[in-house]
Amino acid sequence: MKIERKQEDFRIRNVKRIKRSRFPMSLFAIYLGVVLLMAGVHTGILVVAIKAHWNLIVQILFPIIYWGIVAGGLTLFTRKKVRETYEKPMLNFADAAGKGAAGGFFGGGSFSCRRFFGEDITDTQRRAERLSGCND
After folding, report:
1. How confident is the model at residue 2, as a pLDDT?
2. How far apart are the first and last CA of the chain?
3. Cα–Cα nearest to 63, from 45, 40, 36, 38
4. Hey, what's the torsion of the CAs at 58, 52, 33, 64, to 10 degrees?
5. Secondary-structure breakdown of the chain: helix, strand, coil percentages, each rounded to the nearest 5
6. Tell me: the pLDDT tens digits for 45-103?
7. Which H or E run contains 54?
8. In this structure, what DSSP letter does residue 106 have?
9. pTM exceeds 0.70 for this model
10. Is the pLDDT of residue 107 over 60?
11. 3-state SS, residue 111
């Protein structure tokens, strides 16, 4: 009972660690900093608009356009991070799996146990014991 509980606790800790590593704190800090900076700029825009007596339509449209640009910039940044963090490694993994399935790790062509181990085995029993799973 105690062993099962320890295994369950270990599994929960590992799951939490894995989930934490997908979205590092540095990425959160970048987003927080950017949003705070952009909110400060927004406040500055509002103060300038009121002091300069801008037209009401301009006072409404300018922040909307501004936040559209900010949202577009954050979207492009997120897209770049996702591509670097997830897509490129998955494409590399898929290429490696394709090479392995096609025999690319062994110089192309089909896999040969004799060629791989560099010997000619004639005794069927020894061959079955040493190279189980190879079909030469």
Report:
1. 65
2. 49
3. 45
4. -10
5. 80, 0, 20
6. 999 999 999 999 999 999 999 999 999 999 999 888 888 877 777 877 777 777 766 66
7. none
8. G
9. no
10. no
11. coil
Q: Which residue has the tokens 């040969």?
A: 112
Share of the chain above pLDDT 70, in %: 56
Contact 40, 66 (CB under 8 A): no
Tokens 């394709």 locate to 98
The two most distant CA atoms of the chain are separated, in Å, by 97
Structure tokens at 25: 């704190």
Other C-beta atoms closer than 10 Å to the C-beta of 64 total 8
125 token code pair: 């029993």
Q: Is the pLDDT of residue 35 over 80?
A: yes
Residue 116's identity, in one-letter code, is F
CA 47 from chain centre, in angstroms, equals 41
- Of the candidates 99, 100, 131, which has an alpha carbon nearest to the alpha carbon of residue 115? 131
